[in-house]
Amino acid sequence: MTTTEKKLTGASLLFNVLEQHGVEHVFGYPGGAIMPIYDALYDSGVEHFLCRHEQGAAFSAVGYARASGKVGVCLATSGPGATNLITGLADALADSIPVVAITGQVATAAMGSDAFQEIDIFGLSLACTKHSFQVTNIDDLADVLHQAFAIALEGRQGPVLVDIPKDIQIAAVNGSVDDLVNLQNKVKLPPANVGNALALLNQAKKPILYVGGGVGMANAIDELRDFAKITGLPCVSTLKGLGAIDPEDKYYMGMLGMHGTKASNLAVQECDLLIAVGARFDDRVTGKLNEFAPNAKVIHFDIDTAEINKRRVADASILGDLKVNLPALAIPLSIEPWKAFCLQMNADYAWDYNHPGETIFAPAVLKEISDKMPKNSCVTTDVGQHQMWAAQHMVFDDPSNFLTSAGMGTMGFGIPAAVGAQVSRPTNCIIAISGDGSFMMNVQELSTIKRFQLPVKIVLIDNAKLGMVRQWQDLFFNGRLSETDLADNPDFIMLANAFDIKAQMITKKSEVSAAIEEMLEHDGPYLLQVKIDAQDNVWPLVPPNTANDKMMEST
Amino acid sequence: MNNYQLMISVDDKQVVLERILQVTRYRGFLINGMNAKVNTGTKIGTIELMVSSERPIELLVDQINKLIDIKEVKVDHTAMQ
Ligand SMILES: Cc1ncc(C[n+]2csc(CCOP(=O)(O)OP(=O)(O)O)c2C)c(N)n1
Ligand SMILES: [Mg+2]
Q1: Which of A69, A380, A382, A492 could form a disulfide with A403 if both were Cys (CB 3.0 to 4.6 A apart)?
Q2: Do A131 and B68 touch (CB under 8 A)?
Q3: Does A124 reside within a domain?
Q4: Residues of the domain holding B14
Q5: Is pTM beyond 0.95 here?
Q6: Cα-trace Rg, chain A
Q7: Cis amide bond preceding A234, omega within 30
């Protein structure tokens, strides 16, 4: 079977394969060792978004993948181009995001000679990708590229890197390009035995559902919501799981863990059965591990065998596709007293938005944005206090509408991720919640926003501090504020204007509502700088290596 | 410290040995010895790995199994002291 008889080069073959996999958009940055690929791009149907740093390209690919459910693709040249991708790949690995990264490499004859812009990116990739390839024979190229897409998507998703030496890019392809044979998921797990889990579920008096990012990755949101509805289980979410649980579910108790709600952390500590679904008992979730949910048996649903018993032993494990396995356990439960107790906690510990004085209260701003943003808006965040406030106070109805660097906690994620999200969902409102520290980490991507006229809305929560680190210094390092003051930040309004981005700064509560409305109604990109008090802290906070019921609260 | 011996069967693909060594180190296992050979006919490699760690061996077996080019990982219980 042939799709074309014409002699191809490796570089043009790359674009043929990308198109076979339905890739319409790629993010990248050119350079010497990838020039043949950029030359072939010129003739291809794939649309390329020039970012202003390869880290921006990698995060845009991540944002694209997370907002759309498709594979994100990024391109970079050899040496520094390739190393600049690494943080984005590490982020994608930690959050299980399907990304294919293509790097140019020096010609095979020059490899291993410390050639100009040569780095062993293949070696570097071992710790920050799900899998990687280096193509040293043109006859392998098509197959490797197909495998890269298959591996990125199968089982637990993740980033795959393909390093292509320059001579392979210009080599003539022998034979012709095969039609795409339907790729099958190679990860084969035995059918799950749910008997034991059903027994545990039936015996439990105080069970709770602990929902992670795996639910969204498995596309099992409907199955999860049905499961929650049929069982009536009280439920909590991880940071990456936010949006999976029906936000209208009255037994939903919010996020758990270090900055989780008081209700969810107390409920989890109290429960006698923890049903973990696509979650991995991350240290930011568990607090002190051996005091986490101390009286609970555990049922663990996952696609990744290696997550079972990794940090917490499971009394029953259900491996495989959540779409198939969740319905098998969906039975009505009689746990009325426990449900009433959880509802009461939700009421007792609801967020309090009363805040004295004229200074702006970030949680209230984020809640108001959340209430006013159009349906199907997609929010990205950077990392720090603003990220935790967004997670706590904004409401999402799908995990693909809340993109945050959860596992890696990478500052600089928010702006390029919003670029990728906007490219994948041009008609949706994309809002990046950033901090004054994080914003500066990929500020060059404002240029990408300008170049493609992307109507991204940026909310810059400005405390003139590396606020989260400052909070820890105040609480756990005797107030010794070391290198966390950003009083000399640039003029963010002038900065935005330099990229043709409309911008406004607000400093008082009375300005908040009008400013949010102006931002949301504005057609193009917009930056709203929100000045807040530098002393504001994120509450509750479970101190490091402490049980989750011993949280510190606002005084 | 517990000593373990692993028998790993792999497709003879690029850097598969490096991947196994990297995962072994990262997951907290010391390598005490190693034997590796490839059957050039079948293109299947066999790696014998002697490791030690405070951690249970299942953690490492699961992580090695996740590597794409791995065919099988067996813990040789007879070799363990
Ligand atoms: C790339 C990177 N470097 C350092 C850190 C450590 N870190 C976590 S939060 C934070 C402060 C972030 O400041 P800002 O973006 O202003 O957010 P704020 O906490 O003030 O809301 C830092 C430095 C990180 N998460 N990522
Ligand atoms: Mg800040």
Answers
A1: A380
A2: yes
A3: yes
A4: 2-75
A5: yes
A6: 24
A7: no
